[in-house]
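Q: Got a minute? One more chain.
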Amino acid sequence: MKVFYIYHSGFAIETEKYKLIFDYYMEPKRNSGNFNIENFIIDNKHILVFSSHSHGDHFNKEILNWKEKNPNINYILSDDIEENGGYNFVKEGDSLIVEGVEINVFGSTDLGVSYFVKCDGKSFFHAGDLNWWAWSDDTPEEEKYMKDLYFNKMELIEKKLKEEEIDYLFYPVDPRLEEYSFLGIKYFIEKIRVRNIIPMHMWDKYEIIKNLKNEIKDINIIEINKNCEEILKI
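A: Always. Here it is, folded:
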């Protein structure tokens, strides 16, 4: 299995039979390795492309043109993405199987959804923009609203995944949240069993991963140092 970090919240995963792509929106030229999405999608394996929501840092409609280069591509898109075509549009609470890949769709504390995906004996949770978004200038009312919303979304996830273990958790650790950057990830791993954490949504500030490793000692955290690079091979 291989995992490639593309940029921001974008990742590509290759297993024995499948290729999965999450929240692709661009490949930066700066501080970048050798990964190239056009080479990645030319393959006989089944390719599943996920978009968690329509925000410009998570979705680029150019991904829909990939099917012209490879008809083996299937798309799983949050239903706030307004596009016409033969795509799988999903919302919170949906479950589906696409080319043998099991997909459970959970909510978000922003727009769209998050995904729990199982294939080839591995499980992946891509959070999209699901997070405990606590900003230093929030009013008490805003703080309470976001905390309640996050706990509500997590309660549903915990109920559904209580017997599961996530092999790879892709989760936001946004440095703009300052001292609150790790509130969400810490709460998530209190409630759900996780084997490996892959941080995302870092806006090029990869040094925050070292801070995360100082905060979380008992779960493996996979480091990212630059864009478009292979971060895991097993």
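A: The chain has one domain: 2-233.
Q: Perfect, thanks.
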